[in-house]
Amino acid sequence: MINRSAMLDTKPYSNYVLAAVTSIKKHIDTDPFHYRTAAELLDHLSTPHRNSVEKAFKALYGTRIKEYQVKQRLYLSKFLLKEGMSKKQIAKKCYYGSSSAFCTAFKKEFGMSPTEWEKAFQEHMAALSDAKR
Asked: Does the model's pTM come out above 0.85?
């Protein structure tokens, strides 16, 4: 989601910079598990000022490019948990060095561990199932 109030508080960005930001966000949203650094994402755009693009991205979306990539992976990790993928496999898919590093990042983002989230999700699904009866 674009942070419109941040746009009003910052200098206007050129259409070229805004197109670069849009392209980067689209790439991350399309395939957040494809590892690329912010520099690699910018390389194919031949952007003259990487800092301008990074500042515009943060102004528009409230986070740096790398943070956005990590958050997208963490949000999608919930779907992998629902499908029964192990935390170790998810950690690897999300580019964490260990499942404990993944669990720490997950808890920081969502306020509960992946195990707690799985339990809450299962309880929610059981409650929905009971309500349908």
From this structure: no
